[in-house]
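re: the backbone from monday

yeah here it is again, tokenized this time
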């Protein structure tokens, strides 16, 4: 952790407020962080010299009005990178500080259980490609966030357990750094779960859209079911940093066998791999096995055609998803439970059954249950959140702020 002065902490707090709520006028920014106008102006000037904050002119209001100037994180100088390592694909993208995607790369993945090195080399190669492309445009990469679908100790950068990849106690941060071979990213490599990073991106998207984002649970819809938990505007990680493993809550005792070795887990009933396997069971396909993303698209295509087997499978999975979400809601009492990843793609057929089961299972006084909602992000949400984590690390003091631009 970087030692900061009181002024540094205030500077970082102001930057965090703009990341969350920008664009804002100077008075709005000062009021939002509780600072006097003169102090706000001085700190804004400091952040501008560092290339982190910029001005956005807006059109005049009325014939005699003058254009106003709003402040936001500067979108032109820096970039941050996000990397998601999954069971069948690797996703890498670069983002501007406001969340605009600059470029992205997708690679097929063929993990070897218990041997992550080959997969890390592929992932690091894709990350290096994106970093080099960003640098070639004149932008400065601030760093990269890396995520996997499992339990991660973010403080040490260690993957504790990823059932779908067969990983136990993998030093992911060190492995990515080694595979990069010392390639400069301009900052650190940060590591977390896909659910946690997606929750960060979801929170920012909601805040910038004017919605509440102080308390939510983001349920992944990719390789398993994990929860990213936002409470009090921050990620909640639990006592050991391993909160969110909701996919292995036992919902159906005596049910299907899970990859974790037990039976009846939430994931076996509402995980994407099981959903598409059931939905496509009667639609045999020759040739290479489908990736999860391809299988989801095939399921969507058949659902749009009204295939009864597919529609029944999605409705049944939706009901289990609603029941599991109700358990999570009862435990955590969030403002909203958000269905992310491929769940959003399948929402037209899963959401209504999920909401019905959720409403029947959740118990709240006065019928004030939190909403079961679809994510504002697409399947690249975890990657976007991974890149966002680099910006947030600047505001939290775990990464140094860039030096003033000469």
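seq for it, each position gets an aa:
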């Amino acid at each position: 952790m970087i030692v900061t002065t009181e002024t540094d902490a205030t500077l970082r707090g102001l930057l965090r407020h703009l990341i969350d709520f920008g664009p804002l006028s100077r008075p709005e920014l000062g009021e939002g962080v509780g600072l006097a106008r003169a102090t706000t102006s001085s700190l804004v000037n400091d952040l501008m010299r560092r290339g982190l904050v910029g001005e956005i002119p807006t059109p005049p209001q009325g014939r005699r009005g003058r254009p106003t100037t709003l402040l936001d994180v500067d979108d032109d100088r820096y970039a941050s990178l996000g990397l998601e390592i999954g069971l069948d694909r690797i996703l890498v993208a670069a983002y501007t500080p406001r969340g605009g995607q600059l470029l992205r790369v997708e690679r097929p993945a063929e993990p070897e259980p218990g041997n992550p090195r080959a997969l890390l080399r592929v992932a690091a190669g894709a990350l290096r490609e994106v970093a080099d492309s960003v640098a070639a445009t004149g932008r400065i990469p601030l760093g990269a966030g890396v995520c996997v679908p499992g339990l991660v100790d973010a403080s040490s950068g260690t993957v504790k357990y990823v059932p779908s990849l067969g990983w136990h106690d993998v030093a992911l941060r060190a492995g990515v750094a080694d595979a990069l071979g010392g390639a400069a990213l301009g900052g650190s490599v940060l590591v977390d779960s896909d659910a946690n990073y997606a929750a960060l991106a979801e929170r920012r998207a909601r805040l910038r859209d004017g919605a509440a984002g102080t308390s939510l649970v983001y349920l992944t819809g990719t390789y398993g079911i994990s929860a990213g938990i936002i409470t009090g505007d921050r990620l909640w990680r639990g006592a050991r940093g391993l909160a969110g493993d909701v996919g292995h809550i036992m919902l159906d005792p005596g049910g299907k066998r899970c990859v974790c070795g037990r039976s009846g887990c939430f994931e076996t009933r509402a995980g994407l791999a099981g959903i598409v396997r059931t939905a496509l069971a009667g639609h045999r396909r020759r040739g290479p096995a489908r990736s999860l993303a391809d299988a989801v698209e095939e399921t969507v295509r058949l659902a749009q055609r009204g295939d009864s087997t597919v529609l029944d499978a999605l409705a049944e999975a939706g009901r289990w998803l609603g029941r599991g979400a109700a358990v999570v809601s009862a435990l955590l009492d969030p403002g909203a439970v958000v269905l992310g990843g491929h769940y959003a793609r399948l929402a037209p057929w899963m959401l209504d059954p999920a909401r019905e089961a959720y409403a029947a299972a959740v118990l709240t006084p006065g019928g004030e249950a939190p909403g079961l909602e679809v994510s504002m992000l697409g399947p690249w949400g975890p990657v976007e959140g991974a890149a966002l984590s680099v910006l947030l690390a600047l505001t939290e003091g775990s990464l140094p702020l860039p030096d003033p631009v000469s």
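The chain is about 40% helix and 20% strand. The mean pLDDT is 88.
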